[in-house]
Specification:
mainly alpha, three-stranded antiparallel beta sheet, elongated
């Protein structure tokens, strides 16, 4: 991939993820890690993305929280490397827990609401539960489609 194509990809990933609340620096780092053939150090990330080392560090830690990146220690050194996570489902599993929690919260909120608000809260709770079920089905489809390739390798 040419440097221009690489930069366009990194910028486009950033444009796509920032409306979802991912800071631009973290979105750029995620794209960078997806393209990186090997784990990268904070110094390397900072230089390649032209950001400060502290911005690279904060972004890498945020991606760890989102479960989109993984930190690797270097044996015999304090140096840390980062790579894109290959467990794509962790983020969706966490979102499913949030959807369940929100649905339960909206159900419990109906106790304090009038009949119109109660109906609205029940509808939102049902929507979140249905969304969660759809995501779980998608995860199951993903898992079953991945097994043959993993077992064969």
């Amino acid at each position: 991939m040419s440097n221009d194509a690489r930069e366009r990809f990194i910028d486009e990933v950033s444009r796509q993820l920032t409306p979802w609340g991912v800071p631009a620096a973290a979105a750029r780092l995620y794209a960078y890690l997806l393209l990186s053939p090997e784990p990268a150090s904070l110094d390397q990330i900072a230089a390649d993305l032209q950001v400060s080392k502290s911005t690279a560090s904060v972004s890498a830690r945020l991606l760890e929280q989102y479960m989109l990146a993984r930190r690797l220690g270097v044996r015999g050194s304090k140096r840390v490397l980062y790579e894109a996570s290959d467990n794509y489902e962790n983020m969706l599993v966490a979102q499913n827990r949030l959807l369940d929690s929100l649905a339960d919260l909206f159900d419990s909120g109906s106790e304090a609401a009038d009949s119109r608000a109660r109906e609205r809260l029940a509808e939102v709770a049902d929507f979140y539960r249905l969304t969660r079920q759809g995501m779980e089905q998608a995860l199951e489809t993903w898992r079953s489609s991945r097994r043959p390739r993993q077992d064969a390798g």
